[in-house]
Specification:
The relative contact order is 0.30. The longest helix is centred in the C-terminal third of the chain and has 8 residues, at 136-143. Strands 1, 2, 4, 7, 8 and 9 form a 6-stranded antiparallel β-sheet that branches. A 3-stranded mixed β-sheet has the order 3-6-5, with no helix packed on it. The protein is mostly beta strands. It contains 1 helix and 9 strands; from the N terminus they run E-E-E-E-E-E-E-E-H-E. The protein starts with 8 loop residues before the first strand and ends in a 33-residue tail after the last strand.
């Protein structure tokens, strides 16, 4: 069960209407509540190493609360016989995560109380990020959607309801000139 956190509302500013589809594009999230980051990997356009997005300038708290969308991006796509996943396959090549990076799901849910900026750092593999405000109800519904509803698997709750809940990888309170330099396992202190 996904713990319920306060929701006063989140605003998302700066993102192009088409989503974060190019290196250097950003979205700043502010307020208290939930938002969703939806992944699209495009190995047919350009496979290779994924330069992960980074979170910078955190002021407040940010937790990675749930994963959903019905599948992890490395799950085999239904109906394929060659092992093709949402990360790619034999016909297209693969998008490959840096060692130690947590495998993303199609939908990743976060809760914020403060402000943070998400940066699209695309170099190498082609990917897009679609960020939108969300709610506890939407996140809880997503993680409860399973194979009976056409999903590959049920989602995953990551939130423990405490201040020790997981934070995203590649997160910092600083604002580096090159967001792609944010360390994978940054320590974020209160």
């Amino acid at each position: 069960m996904l713990p319920r956190r306060a929701e006063k509302g989140v605003t998302a500013t700066g993102a192009p209407t088409t989503g974060l589809t190019h290196r250097g594009e950003t979205v700043t999230l502010s307020g208290e509540g939930y938002f969703r980051v939806r992944w699209q990997i495009l190995p047919k356009e350009r496979p290779g190493s994924v330069a992960m997005p980074a979170w910078t300038g955190l002021d407040g708290r940010l937790f990675h609360v749930a994963s959903g969308g019905g599948h992890r991006m490395d799950d085999p796509q239904p109906g394929t016989t060659d092992g093709t996943t949402w990360m790619g396959g034999p016909a297209t090549g693969l998008a490959v995560l840096p060692s130690g990076t947590q495998q993303m799901w199609q939908n990743e849910y976060f809760w914020i109380d403060g402000t943070v900026t998400l940066h699209q750092n695309e170099r190498g593999a082609d990917y897009n990020l679609f960020v939108e405000t969300s709610s506890w109800d939407k996140a809880a519904q997503d993680v409860r959607t399973g194979p009976e509803q056409g999903a590959v698997r049920y989602g995953l709750v990551r939130d423990n309801g405490k201040d020790t809940a997981p934070v995203p990888q590649y997160l910092t309170r600083s604002a580096p000139a090159d967001p792609a330099t944010v360390r994978q396992r940054s320590r974020v202190t209160p």
